[in-house]
Structures are given as structure tokens and as C-alpha cells.
Write a structure and sequence with these properties.
Layout (H helix, E strand, L loop, with lengths): L17 H24 L4 H26 L4 E2 H22 L12 H10 L2 H9 L2 E2 L3 H24 L8 E2 L4 H14 L17 H13 L5 H26 L5 H10 L12 H7 L1 H22 L5 H15 L1 H17 L7 H22 L8 E2 L3 H6 L7 H16 L15 H19 E2 L7 H24 L2 H21 L8 H24 L4 H33 L13 E2 L1 H13 L5 E4 L20 H6 L2 E2 L14 H15 L3 H9 L2 E7 L12 E6 L3 E6 L3
Parallel strand pairs: 1-2, 7-8, 7-9
Antiparallel strand pairs: 3-6, 4-5, 9-11, 10-11
Helix pairs in contact: 1-2, 2-3, 2-8, 3-8, 3-9, 3-12, 6-9, 6-10, 7-8, 8-9, 9-10, 9-12, 9-19, 10-19, 11-12, 12-13, 12-14, 12-19, 13-14, 13-15, 14-15, 14-18, 14-19, 17-18, 17-21, 18-19, 19-22, 20-21, 20-22, 21-22
Length: about 725
Amino acid sequence: MTAGLLERPAPSLRRPERPGRRAVGSVPVVLAVLGWALLVGSGVDVLQAARLVLVVAVQLGTGAVLWRLARGPVGLPVSELVGMGAALGTLLAMLGAQLLRPTPLAPLGWLAPTAAVVVALLVPAVRARVRAGGVLRPRLDEIGGVAAGLGVGLLYLSSFWRAHPLSSTGWRSYYVDIPYHEALATSLATWGPVDSVFAAGTPVRYHWFVHAWAGATTNAAGAGSFVVITRVLPLVAFLGVLCLAWTWSRRLSTHRAVPALAVLLIAVGLNVASASSITFLQHSLLSPSLGFGALAMLGAAVVLTDLLRGAVRWPHALLGLFAVGCVGGKTSFAAVLGGGVGLVAVAGLRDRAIRRRAIAALAVVLAAVAGAFVVLVMGSRGDLLLQPGATARAFGFLAREDRLGLVVGTVGVALAFAAKWAGVLALVGRRPRPEVWFALGAAGAGLFLAAVLGHPGLSQTYFPISAGLVVAVVSAVGLGVALDRLSARVLWTATAVGVAAGIAGLVALPQGRAWISPYLVWSLPLLLGAGSLVRAWVRGGRAGLPAGAARGAAVVGWGLAVAALTAGSAVVLDTARTPPPAAAQPDGPLAWSPAHEDALVWLREHSAVDDVVATNRQCAGPQQDAAACERHRWFLTAALADRRVYVEGADYIAGVPHPEWVRTRVELSRRFVDAPGADDARVLWDAGVRWVVADLASTGNRDWAPHAEQAFATDTTVVLRLSRP
């Protein structure tokens, strides 16, 4: 049977037998060997892969020991130690590296948390506390559930790695933001948030924690360009997120199927009938901050659960730490965390058992989020606008451009995102517990912000995507209730209806009737649920309605969850059948070759760290006029040269203008390469520019004397040394 948050008995304190310890000890070794093999298979050098595994293992081990101390004398599953180790260890390593970056200890900053733990373990009482709690032998369902989720993640990774090779003899083209993430990782590790690699002299106002971690890990392991961002980070994030989903779902339910369902909903479940048909794992490959923020979000959820039960030490410190991690990881997580904890606090006002703890949790989260937002993000120009209906319009859910159409389309957006969350409906008829309020608050915050905000790049959809990570776990708890509440015949019927609904959503979406697609998906399970309610009324009259309503809600929740998994399975199959990407062409968007790389690597090796570089290449494709670049940015100079650029990557999405000073820098950079003059050379020199990277495909000029001299050249790129005016 499924138990509520405060009803589940505490785990047994009995320490595992010796064979269990041997099995537990083998898990880190297996994970390390598997990680090393995957890195090598993805193109990473053998020794470099070994160093990376060692660095990550130290970070995860540090976090696991801290969590072991926080949990006290209870038996912990291996997945819990791995998941919380990833959430705590990576966040603390990043913070240590940033805090010590301006000091002589900068190269070892990421080891500061590990050193603190080692010093603490020298105290006998601390060692005794670590030994007091056992580690539970991993069960088959635990291994199988997490492994299944990782299998899906590795399928996405294999396709992603094929499209983003680490080395190539010909032309290649990365997804537009991958060089951006790589460059920002170098920027944070070298100059911190006080200076930006993309516009020298400007601060970084962004959720930059993942980039700081990637840069610190790259430096610690001596890794090459793009290795941590495209190889190491996804592996760590996938493993940590899936282990945390398993851990939290096991906290909330004793049903053995629930953790596996939680993992599947996160790894496979699709936003049914959505134009943005991307699973969480797949999307986090293109947005690394999503995976890093997810670790903090799920870590906060686990700590909140333990705080309300009084089952963890230092709960407020841990919750505050993870709240800061949500702001710096992906700001959308901070919004849904605040919404979830806020509803828990409001709902807990009438519950003496949790009232004080819930209010304290809300105060901690609000203070941490507000403080982190002021320090990290406030001052950013931002590009999210108050634009109700923008998401519905982008998804094609607005059949008409009036108020009724706006309402109908917005409801359609909610239905599209909420299909895989619908298992929460199965909890109808049970006394609401804090975890349910938490999920509803997170879902409400995510859907509301997606409904009222707009952005040409659909960035507002990150809010419901972030909320979905939380709600999917609670939805799995509801599915466990459905398994207990429904007969086998009803379950099979609901499963068949769910499969049909998932297929209907996939088929209807591209047929020019997008607005009706989410309603079509929901209608089939709703009809079945209504039939269950009518049957209960016919059999038992009014007295049978409460039980019938509960069963009907369980039928709807189960059917829609199956629909989400059906649609997600189709995406998984499409990914598996995806052919290798075609070779990039020299004139293609974002295309670059070893000739570009050689020039930028030469510049990195022959320039000072604080030199500023100007470049005429601002657009995804070569361009010899002053027109806007429209959709794609170009970040390769900053990504491979590891130097601050005067300005690069300013043009991103049409409709998002940038400030006048950005336009001035872009025009000056292009003008100097096309027709160098003394006045422009003096402005560049005074701004700290000492080098100019001239992309030959973006200019017809080949003579820069006397204002600059050629220092290095390839078929595609010339590196110019700026002459003192």
C-alpha cells in the first residue's frame, strides 16, 4: 500500500550483512568503469577520461559523505548516496572553486569541500556518526529502474555525441549554444562573474553555476574543449537526477513499482500533443543548466520531505543551499520551488504536525532565492516579456485571436504539459499530504508563468518543464495508488485507452489542427473515467459516488500517464533510428573546420590571458554586410581561444534587440576588418584589444597594414596582432 509523507515508517536501523557491503562497494567501481568506458567511446583520450572520472568521483564522494552525516544512523540505499552525492558534491565543488578563484589556491578551489570533509573525519565522533548508519544492499528493482532510465539517456547521448564530435578532419557544425556554454565555462573559471568572455568589461548576470562547474572540472582534469560540457556533464546530471527521482519517490511511497514509474516518467514521458515534443533528458543536452538545476531542485525536494518528518540534520542549511543552487542552476527551478514550498506552508497552517516546519522552510527558501537572485541575476536585461498567450500561439493552440481563443489555447497548453503529471489525479479521495501540495504548487507556478510570459525562443516553457520534474515523481506516487485501487481488467482497459490517446496526439498534431490535439488526448481517458463514475452510481447510488470518483480519477491519471509514455516511446524509437548527421558544408550555418580551430588554438597559446580579442565573425554563417544575423549566434572565437572577446554572439533571435553599445561594438569590429582606420584602431586599443580574428569568408579585405600585422593564418582565418596607435 502507498503511504503518505508522514505515515511512512522510518527505515530499519539494522546494518546490512557483510555480503551486502561487498555489493555496495562494487557499485562505485562499476559506475567509474562504465563512465570511463563511455567517455573513451565518445572520443575522449584514455588518460583524460581517467582523470575526469577521478575528479567527478571525488566530488560525488564528498557529497555522499556529507549526506551520510546529515541523515544520521539509518540505512541508506546506494541510489540515495549517489543522487545526493551528485547534487551536493557538484554544487559545493563549484562554489569552492569560485570563492577561491581570486586567491593563490584557485587551482585547488574545487577541492575545498573535500578538504573540509577530510578534516572533519579526523574527529572520532564524526567518524562514528558515519559508521553508525549502514548502506543498504541495492535491490534488483533499484538497479533495474535506474539502469532503464540511464539506458534511455544513453540513447539520447549517443545521437548527441554523433552530432558533436570532439575531433574532425572535415567541416562540422555544433548546435548553436554548445560553443556558448563552452566559452562561458572558461569565462567563469578564469574571470568569474565579474567579466564576460563575450563582451569584455561586462559582468555575467545569468544562471551560470553549471558553467562555473564545467570550467572548474575542465581545469582540474586538464580536459580538452567541449569535453565536460558535452560528455561529462550529461552523464553526471542523468545519473544524479534519476537516482534522486528514485530516492524521493521511495520516500513518498512504499509501493515497489513507484520508483520505476517515476524514473520512466522523467526519462520517457512526453509533453503529449506539444509542438515542443522533447523529453527532459533530451532537452537538458541542449541546455546544460537544466540538468544542473534539476539536481538542486530534486535535492531540495528530498530535504524538504525529511525536514517535515524531522529526519535530517541541518535541514535549513541544506534547503537554503539547494534553493541558491536552483537560482544559479536554472532560474525557472527557483520559481517552481517557491511555488511548491509556498503552497505547502499555506496548506500546513491547519496542520499542527508540520505548520512550524513548513513556515520555516518557506522563509528559508524565500530568503535564499531572493538573495541569490539579487547577487546572481538582477541587472540582467532579460528577454522574457509579459505576453499572455504567447506559448499557446507558438504551439498552434490558438484557433482564433480573441479572448475566447486565448483562454482555450492557454488551457490547451496546460493540458499538453500536464498529461504526464496526471497520475496526481489518482490521489483524489485521499487526505492531501505535503508532497501533493508541493507538486500542485510547483505545477501551478510553472503553468502560470508559461501562460503569461513570452519569448521568441520559447524560453517560458522552461517553467513547466522544471515543474514537471517534481510533479512527475508525485504523479508516480499516484500511479502506485491506481495500481492498488483498480482491478486488472480496468487497468488493462485504461492502458489501451492511454496508448490510443498517445498515438492520437502524435498523429493529430501535424495535421493543421494543433489546437484540438491536447483536448483529443485528454478526452479519451476522461470518457473512460466518466464511465467508471457512472457505473459506480448505477451500482451504489449516491453512496457509491465517492469511491467511484476516486476510481475514475485513478483511471484518468493512469490513462494519461500511459499516453505520455507512449508518445515518449515513439520519440525514443525515432532517436534510435536517427541516421548519422550529414557532413557540414563550408557555407552552412555554424560550420567550422580544423582550419578555424588551428588559428584559435594558436591564439590561445600565444596571447596573454587578459588580452582582449576582436572578431568580424558574428553570424552563424559567413556574412559580408551589416545586416542582422537573425536566428543563430557565433561563439567559436571565445570557445576555442579562451580569451575575452570585444563582442561576439550578439545576434541570436530576431525580435530581441540588444543595447546601443553592443551594436556599436559589432559595427566597429566588422568595420576594422573590412576597412581598418586609425580612429577605429585607437578605440580598440584603448578597450584592451590586442588581437583581431578575421574570418576570411566574412570579409573581402586582405590588407590591414599599418594598423595590424598578420601573426598567423589558415585557409579560413587570419589572426592579426593590433599595432599600437
